[in-house]
Amino acid sequence: MIYFDSDYTAGAHPEVLEALCVTNGEHTIGYGCDSYSENAKNLIRKACGLTDARVYLLVGGTQTNATVIDGVLARHEGVLAAQSGHIAVHESGAIEACGHKVLTLPHYQGKVKVTDVGAFIDEFYRDETYEHMVAPGMLYISFPTEYGTIYTLKELEDLSEVCHKADIPLYIDGARLAYGLAATEGDVTLQDIARLADIFYIGGTKVGALFGEAVVVTNPNLLHHFTPLIKQHGALMAKGRLLGVQFEALFRDGLYFEIGQKAVRQALAIKKAFVSRGYTAVVDSPTNQQFFLLPNTLIDHLRSNNISFETWGTRGEEQTTVRFVTGWATTESDIDALVALL
Amino acid sequence: MIYFDSDYTAGAHPEVLEALCVTNGEHTIGYGCDSYSENAKNLIRKACGLTDARVYLLVGGTQTNATVIDGVLARHEGVLAAQSGHIAVHESGAIEACGHKVLTLPHYQGKVKVTDVGAFIDEFYRDETYEHMVAPGMLYISFPTEYGTIYTLKELEDLSEVCHKADIPLYIDGARLAYGLAATEGDVTLQDIARLADIFYIGGTKVGALFGEAVVVTNPNLLHHFTPLIKQHGALMAKGRLLGVQFEALFRDGLYFEIGQKAVRQALAIKKAFVSRGYTAVVDSPTNQQFFLLPNTLIDHLRSNNISFETWGTRGEEQTTVRFVTGWATTESDIDALVALL
Amino acid sequence: MIYFDSDYTAGAHPEVLEALCVTNGEHTIGYGCDSYSENAKNLIRKACGLTDARVYLLVGGTQTNATVIDGVLARHEGVLAAQSGHIAVHESGAIEACGHKVLTLPHYQGKVKVTDVGAFIDEFYRDETYEHMVAPGMLYISFPTEYGTIYTLKELEDLSEVCHKADIPLYIDGARLAYGLAATEGDVTLQDIARLADIFYIGGTKVGALFGEAVVVTNPNLLHHFTPLIKQHGALMAKGRLLGVQFEALFRDGLYFEIGQKAVRQALAIKKAFVSRGYTAVVDSPTNQQFFLLPNTLIDHLRSNNISFETWGTRGEEQTTVRFVTGWATTESDIDALVALL
Amino acid sequence: MIYFDSDYTAGAHPEVLEALCVTNGEHTIGYGCDSYSENAKNLIRKACGLTDARVYLLVGGTQTNATVIDGVLARHEGVLAAQSGHIAVHESGAIEACGHKVLTLPHYQGKVKVTDVGAFIDEFYRDETYEHMVAPGMLYISFPTEYGTIYTLKELEDLSEVCHKADIPLYIDGARLAYGLAATEGDVTLQDIARLADIFYIGGTKVGALFGEAVVVTNPNLLHHFTPLIKQHGALMAKGRLLGVQFEALFRDGLYFEIGQKAVRQALAIKKAFVSRGYTAVVDSPTNQQFFLLPNTLIDHLRSNNISFETWGTRGEEQTTVRFVTGWATTESDIDALVALL
Hints:
The structure is a homotetramer. By secondary structure, the first copy, chain A, is of the alpha/beta class. Chain A is built from 14 helices and 13 strands. Helix content of chain A is 42%, strand content 18%. In chain A, α1 (14-23) crosses α11.
């Protein structure tokens, strides 16, 4: 079977696994106070072009979003997000469970528009009853989005500006950050993210780690006392060095970026193959997630030939939208086998 | 350096790590819906002597306690626990963050007394203002306790009875369960735990896994819709099979129990060595955690000879309480080296 | 000045105030355990045609909504509501502060459609990832709505049916219930509300009381242990009889319904006057709130002649939507004075 | 029947009720933005000797405590309080429902000791695992306490100092503030309270109002955006002027203080009568609550002669502790009738 279901169906990239095996027998202090974690944080800071950002290593994405947002917002505030944002749809109400409303904005293939953000904030404070409503306390965006799309540098700069003018932080969910940075038509670097966001996280789970998300706090006014909050959210690993060891492997020699580049190259090859045969890419995604509208006959044909992938929404009468995802474990022969079946 | 600091300072037991390595390249469905997780749950049910208990695999202990307790309690209820209980002291307020009070009881070397539990419940409902107070909604105990002590079978039966008479569930935190079951002077089996508790968890992190706690729900009336709650608490791993693979390794051939037995044997050897030389065991612990009151001179002597261990509380003028902990990674030569220094 | 701003700008209906004055010097037990509260609850049960519903007296509407919804929902559930619903917009995030998402539905002049409710529930459970999403755990509607509109009996029956088929309770916010029941073109009685809703509240604050909302729980499976939850939400008055005395006055001889009927008659007179002069009623409201699109010149003319009312949204270039509200304190001469100015 | 059960068994002081009646027919803007509320706040500021403190008017005590504490604490913090403190015992877990632990200190007839507060904070930060514990984020005390006792000025100054040295606010629950200020052996003025506390509230419910508590925020760094939080907590009255009108009546000509003085004088007369006849005052209270250990025969004798009062705890074999409380409604003849029966 060849899998294009998601980027978290296999284990860790071999180099990451190797690092875990090599260090397995060592004893270190717990809860992330070990030297592997310290080193990983330094490597991340260096990659971001930052000298004094605070870096925290957590386990999973929903957990990270809830812990960060809970730590940033005041009790009367909510978080702005696209209606399609992960926190708005697929986190089982984790943000609300912390006491905060997700204030949704229209989405454009997963992205928010700076004009919508600005208008929301303006209208909120022009409303005489605004103290009876939930104040916008931060902006959440994902890069790339849940649709595989990315923001341009100009768009990120504008979002950062509209947030800072309103004195609310910009938070970027980078669960698949490597794939967004690797988009060939993109112009955003990790340093740009680090410069424009107040907080963001570098996703490990979907980019070669067994698990792990690295939160980078560039705004020195935010998330003081974050460690007890991580503990309170059940996100502080006893064997914290497991996170350090993995992020060290990912950031020591650029492996994180290589995984992203390889997977995006493969995803675009898949896209090219489908489109050249006349199928529609329903989202113009430049990253490792590709969405196509395919005849059900083709879907069945591929699946009967051991190609595994997910439908996106329910199966249609004759055609259905499907998703193909590449990751560290996707091989060139996987791509060849798929293309040969089209 | 030889480490007796804790049972979570090293990585995974080699057999557990091997299982992760062997399965690393496979693709499976995410979020714990894979066959490794299913198999692990079956092995756990079998070990518990249960055929239809529900089993859930979570990542860490604080997370597990918060998710379970949040799922069990009604909004007006709190959880009874020893004043020394992990949820009362060392979880950064995770239970309160879910909206619930920890109702504390006196502790006796980490244990609660059934008479105290019964008296609390009786007095609560005899108080005319009880609707202005937090109702006891469940009982939390740890086995073994934070002091390494264990309950006898009779004590557990009595606690179970007093809870069920009051119609509140008994929840057992088994972060170090294997060590409690391995206590040579203990008379409690895993099947007893499964029979007497409404919910308990089998700790993996401190017993040979990289991470992982298996929640067993034996009471069919509790924790319906627990999966969305796990997700909401950020405790649902994307690569959920990592938990399944590890618990499979731990429960396939009894490795979980072997780790417990070995570590307890070693801990008792340490205890015997200290006591035979006239030092005081400040807790009468039959498990893998041992507490001694030692002269500071001996503490310094051991540490200067590469024996690493924690002080328990602050350093005294002349003597200090220390803790020695054994685990899967403790070797016989570690014990010999320690004993030779006494 | 003549006020049409809202139905909570004046104090209590004279009969209600009189009841408070007459009983002021008496001593009674606190927290609503007095005989006035007991009698008020009996009168409410009788008016509802119920013999054994539980009735609870709270202070304000937002408080009531938060306490009820918090008490009904399981941790993984949210509440369905119109996008224009009070809990979705104007309660400063009180529902989210209790940990629950407001799942919004399209609104049609404040009302939800039964087909939208049904479709939401169906689609939710057809989604394979539904355990990663917030489950619909109850339906909230307001009667009349925030736009002054009302549901027909058939609509309420359908909503009740779709809820009960999905095994979720129907909750009706009756902050202005008397005005909805008094709508001349309506066909819904208090007994209908009591028969179709699992929980509803009878608003006092906007219908002649100084404050107070009476929660009626008709579904015996819901809101057990509600008193400690009321206390926890800070909604349990020390001098609880104040609520009992007021609801007794409102329900002893039908005053509650008379206030509604009088105010609706007056509101319809206002509507007739505006419409007959060619102005547009922007909502077809049969209750005590009326919305008109008026030329700014007329708005200024009325205001300069001591007619006070609110604009609805921001002032337009030439025309603006305004709201006129009647209540217990609106007099016939108020209406005459207004009409004379048109 | 003559009532000594509590200070909230009767309605409002006649002057307060009169003010409500006189203003009943007026129309004012809602939610506390009216001129009565503004005037009441000015009168309170003046009485406190403050020119720019912020004042907020809420409805009840539990509600006030929860809203204030929720607004002050960061997510990882808890509130220090005496084990006997109202928030620790009698608020149905309202503080925990907001996500925060009540960190309890020993109590001495309801009071905390400055040395205990200091020691708690010192030990907390000396503990190496303090990030796994709940940080002390504020100190809650009540004046007078739940036992009727009061702090001396020196004690309050010391508590204020230890808090400010640790950079945590001091919050004083003044549910019965007037009675504490009126204690003949006390040396604390309202201005002292205002100078030493960062936040406190002036209780109206138990001192002549129908309901109402005035929160005074003297520390300009705290409780920004408090109005939306009040709304979120369901504590923002639609007819907010009811609070303004009442506090205006209480503070216009010193009525608040007079009620306190009168009731304390009466309570001390009761105390003198009991003690002079050889009965034990179990708490040395200088305020309006008095606690005596009485023979059950006397208790029964008094009750059969129409004297109503509460037992404090359960009835003993031969003797029982009882509580006598005076308030605005206690008359001189009430006292005479009681004394005559001893």
